[in-house]
Design brief:
The chain is mostly helical and 187 residues long. The chain is 61% helix and 5% strand.
């Protein structure tokens, strides 16, 4: 049997390698850059949002909670006219990449930890690389990409962006699987 403590190295190394892979995908290949658009009237949109002085958070446009709200003819007309969307607002200021990247790395460690947790209960010590890769790869793919479709379905994220995120998740899952397969405890 494999203990979770014996997987500290593949957990750490897979987090580091996924961090590097994500940097390559986002900073070198930059294929996600086209996922974001600029408002033609960005300054006007910013001014209207600033006027409301919203705190950082997640906002619906149009806000309609519950079935009774959807019976209001005025609200239904607003839906027809649009726009309809979801906005995420951060606190004002230049984004500091240090804390964001630190949170991303901590997240990768947590994912690798739970991938390892499932793997110790499903893969025996000395298992061949291909078996470790298959099991850990499936777990890693689900961890990184399994819920991405929800953003397109429920939040209106373009499917093209969601599919790229799912492909990223597949790459991250394979990097994690390769690392665990390489460093898996031998008998």
């Amino acid at each position: 049997m494999v203990s979770l403590s014996s997987l500290w190295l593949p957990i750490l190394v897979s987090a580091v390698l996924v961090f590097v892979a994500s940097a390559i995908l986002h900073m070198a290949l930059k294929y996600h850059n086209v996922d974001y658009r600029k408002f033609a009237n960005e300054d006007e949109v910013r001014a209207v949002i600033q006027k409301g002085n919203p705190s950082p958070g997640q906002y619906l446009l149009l806000y309609a909670m519950g079935p009774n709200a959807m019976k209001d003819p005025a609200l239904l007309e607003k839906f027809k006219q649009g726009p309809v969307g979801l906005a995420f607002l951060r606190k004002p200021g230049v984004p500091s990449m240090g804390p964001i990247l630190g949170q991303w790395f901590a997240y990768l460690l947590v994912v690798s930890f739970f991938v390892g947790y499932v793997a110790v209960h499903t893969v025996a010590a000395g298992a061949p690389y291909s078996h470790v890769f298959r099991v850990v790869g499936a777990i890693g793919f689900l961890a990184y990409a399994g819920a991405r479709g929800q953003s397109a379905i429920w939040q209106g994220e373009p499917w093209s962006a969601t599919i790229k995120d799912i492909i990223d998740g597949l790459i991250y899952g394979c990097v994690t699987a390769g690392t665990f397969g390489w460093l898996w405890p031998r008998v």
